[in-house]
Target: Adenosylcobinamide kinase
Amino acid sequence: MRILLLGGSKSGKSMLGQRLTRQLADGGPMIYWATLEPRDTEDRAIVRRHLAERDGWGFGTLERGRALPEGLALVPREGAVLFDSVTACLACQMFSGPQPDAAAAARTARELLTVSRHSRHFVCVCDELWRDGVTYEPWTEHYRRGLAEICRALAAEFDAVAELSAGCVRVWKGELPDA
Model:
């Protein structure tokens, strides 16, 4: 089963993703695929919080925000993967070089679809950054459009899509397992 979880910052996406991944794994191997490359104290705090939240749950951790298919050698096919997050992954792919990479969104979508097909179960988390109606600088707009395009590509192929807001879940496509 492949699930896409969307929502704003601190909406409960990651915690729900952890619970769903654990349920889908049903005692089998679980991988937390972390994509955030910490750059400041706020990023490091996010990493610490996510580590603490899943402490003792049995997740293995894979840290990779670029060249995603190269990480598949570390991912068991019979397992369940929590990919957290598309948001950070696109930022890594688009803004890690000397110049922003205009092709990053299309590449990220292709790579994510490839890695999502590898394991038995794949739960993917993405922040909804495209809905505030504010106009930003051109590269920020390019990033936001790319993020929305990636999520549309995933939603078209995934089994279930849900949106979280203040801890409330709205299922837009398919059904979520009980978590």
